[in-house]
Amino acid sequence: MKSCVGYAAFESSGKLSTYNFDRREPQDDDVMLEILYSGVCHSDVHWVRAEWNPSPPYPLVPGHEIVGRVAEVGAKVTKIAVGDIAAVGVQVDSCGECKCCSDQRDDPQYCTKGVFTYASPHGYPDSVESEKVTQGGYSTRIVTREKFVFSVPPALHKNLAGVAPLLCAGITTWAPLQYFAGGEAELRGKKLGVVGLGGLGHMAVKLGKALGCHVTVLSSSESKRKAAIDELGADAYLVHKDKEAMKDAQCSLDVVVDTVSADHDLEALVALLDVGGKYLVVGLPPHKLAFKNSWFVNKKRMLGGTLIGGPVMTQDLLNFCAERGVYADIELIKMDAINDAFERMLASDVKYRFVIDIASSKLE
Ligand SMILES: [Zn+2]
Ligand SMILES: [Zn+2]
């Protein structure tokens, strides 16, 4: 076993504190990373506070935006070597045999036996893995199957903290643009709307711009207008509640990516789509959102959703970001600031993602 120090929640207050545990000894197809940076995702708060699962498996170490240095590889590992900078995202394993897991499909995140990076039963016997469930990246090291470990291209090494959020916020907003909107070949010059400007939304804006789209941010308030346009490079900014402006913008967008995980009214947002437009959701609001078929039928619009992206697509995203110089905008924190960071994130008081500097947090 490999000793590891993490920050875990022990009950549903979700307050994190030090937790010592073991990672499995790397198996033949495993890679062990010494973690350098770990991004802080909204999912982490939902999990530790028992908001998504009423009885999460405690102790629970969250974190699924992980960048680290490879310290050990198993005998059958071929694409990753000791000393490489590599990354792990939201998923760490799957059955490997079903339709979703085939390389052509590259959809293991939809495998019914998918194993996620934390709070997921891992399928290893106690003799191999002493933790009952997977434990995430708010920790000093992680052992993961090679299939779910990604190479971080050298061009990204100058800002590894800004790479970590690509592993969840980045791939989550990249995937719908690839699956449903044709990727760069079809998106260049198209009009993209991004609903919400948190961790996910800011990545959607940056990736949309890098893909050559005209990007409009759709926000619930005026407060982020200047940052959206001056700092993130958005071309336009609309406030949902500004009925006049929303009406003027009807039928003007080709694709909308909706990143909001709170309940919200879709009618005025769907109405922004042109004939044939696509409304793509990646947020997970707690309740059903109502829509009328006529919003879609009468304008040949479609509604789609995606959950992260497969391993092949995730590596493609990292390669794209290396080529175009795309990073997340982050605020770097030490591990012991995480409980305050959760509160600030819930208050949208971060531009746009917290990333934990694991290596200099002196967890050992
Ligand atoms: Zn996430
Ligand atoms: Zn499978």
Automatic annotation (TrEMBL):
Describe the family membership recorded for this protein in Swiss-Prot or TrEMBL.
Answer: Belongs to the zinc-containing alcohol dehydrogenase family.
Pfam families membership: ADH_N, ADH_zinc_N
Q: Which SUPFAM superfamilies match?
A: GroES-like (SSF50129), NAD(P)-binding Rossmann-fold domains (SSF51735)
**SMART domains to which the protein is assigned, alphabetical:** PKS_ER (SM00829)
Q: What domain of life? A: Eukaryota
- Organism of origin is Erythrolobus australicus
List GO molecular-function terms, semicolon-separated: oxidoreductase activity, acting on the CH-OH group of donors, NAD or NADP as acceptor; zinc ion binding
> Where does the Enoyl reductase (ER) domain lie?
14-356
Q: What is the protein name for this chain?
A: Enoyl reductase (ER) domain-containing protein
Cofactor(s) of this protein: Zn(2+)
The opening ranks of the lineage are: Eukaryota, Rhodophyta, Bangiophyceae, Porphyridiales, Porphyridiaceae
What UniProt keywords apply to this chain's record, in alphabetical order? Metal-binding, Oxidoreductase, Zinc
